[in-house]
């Protein structure tokens, strides 16, 4: 069935609309009326992103306000950091993580702080009752929570009506796989249901300028469960990681339309909920001791801050079959490349040695600046040479054995000096560019892996 349309005349100067053409507009301009056809829009069309019953018009980009001016403070500094400075109004954020990792705890803490600062917050749960959410809120939240509204519901049409009545400043959906729409007969969590529920949430968020948090399930492998349409639909994808038997939790952004995806947020799980870790480097280096074989400190630059880490390695003779290579926090292909360079360029034979490498703390650092520390830790444990707890090694190892420079080396040097380190082994190109060397810090610039080994264990 063809859609009905009507013709109007619009002034190009002031935007005045008239049903008839006029030589002179009411603003005084002559011959500025242009004919336009407006298509009739159905008010009950749920597939549209625009407002119901309103025909959309294109807006010049210089008249659109930037989202940087409409960010909301979540009250959690580490969450703000990962989001790029806070939540953007009208944005959809998807957060995932294994069961029991702390997703709901972090969200209820943020909801309570936002409700106290900005007004009403609507927390919709399709998995827990209102009493269960209240019990968690009493345990981990502080202050007045009178503006925090709870709703145990899975019908998106009902949720949409409640949202229109309350008009919250922040909306939470836990979880998208439990939601459904009456327009479809398929089960909740199916591709069609997730698509239509996601579109409805996007319409609520964009039209009302409401930030929406969507919780999603994960599979056994840690990937998002269900269709990929959810990841493409939202503005931000956050992933919560950590070992359930440890206190450290890491929040990382895998997609962010309003900020970088290299930022991480650090939390500690305690009795009072999630606590922010201000000095993350200190927590990663707690067990680093002087004279330990197979341990080496290194540094990476995550987002807007340097991060110091400890790399541990262990080698043992291979008894049966091929040598084993195991890596936690380091890509296995990267480890195999480092071992090949050690053998060809440094004369270190590891063909009959099982090699185990671990980045302490469970973090998987991005980039290649940890290559040198991994190689030195392997050499240390193989030769039985003790390492120094006051030295940091960083640099990318090339296939030729040369060391390539790393980014933000000067900021890493300052952070290392603040943490009490006295010596940094780094690529020579980085050492030559650093102008201000902190007091008590020694920079050792090296050009290749063989030279780095000689200057470390001479």
Question: What would your notes on this structure say?
Answer:
It is a single chain. Helices cover 27% and strands 26% of the residues. By secondary structure, it is α/β, with parallel strands linked by helices. The strands form six sheets. It has a nine-stranded mixed beta sheet, with helices on both faces. Strands 15-16-18-17 form a four-stranded mixed beta sheet. It has a three-stranded antiparallel beta sheet with strand order 2-1-3, with no helix packed on it. Strand 17 (325-328), helix 8 and strand 18 form a beta-alpha-beta unit. Helix 9 packs across helix 12 (449-456). The termini are far apart. The model has no long low-confidence stretch (mean pLDDT 87).
- CATH superfamily of the largest domain, by name, is P-loop containing nucleotide triphosphate hydrolases
CA-CA gap between termini: 84 Å
Content-based structural category: alpha/beta
So how many helices?
12
CATH architecture of the largest domain: 3-Layer(aba) Sandwich
What share of the residues lie within helices?
25-40%
Which features characterize this protein?
four-stranded mixed β-sheet; 3 domains; Rossmann fold; Ribosomal Protein S5, domain 2; alpha/beta; 458 residues; 12 helices; 23 strands
Give me the secondary-structure topology.
Elements: E1 5-11, E2 17-18, E3 33-39, E4 71-72, H1 77-83, E5 87-88, E6 92-97, H2 103-118, E7 121-125, H3 130-140, E8 148-152, H4 156-166, E9 170-174, H5 191-208, E10 212-216, H6 229-233, E11 236-241, E12 248-256, E13 264-270, E14 273-276, H7 280-284, E15 295-302, E16 305-317, E17 325-328, H8 332-345, E18 353-359, H9 371-383, E19 391-393, E20 396-397, E21 403-404, H10 409-418, E22 423-427, H11 428-433, E23 442-446, H12 449-456
Parallel strand pairs: 6-10, 6-11, 7-8, 7-9, 9-10, 17-18, 19-22, 22-23
Antiparallel strand pairs: 1-2, 1-3, 4-5, 11-12, 12-13, 13-14, 15-16, 16-18, 20-21
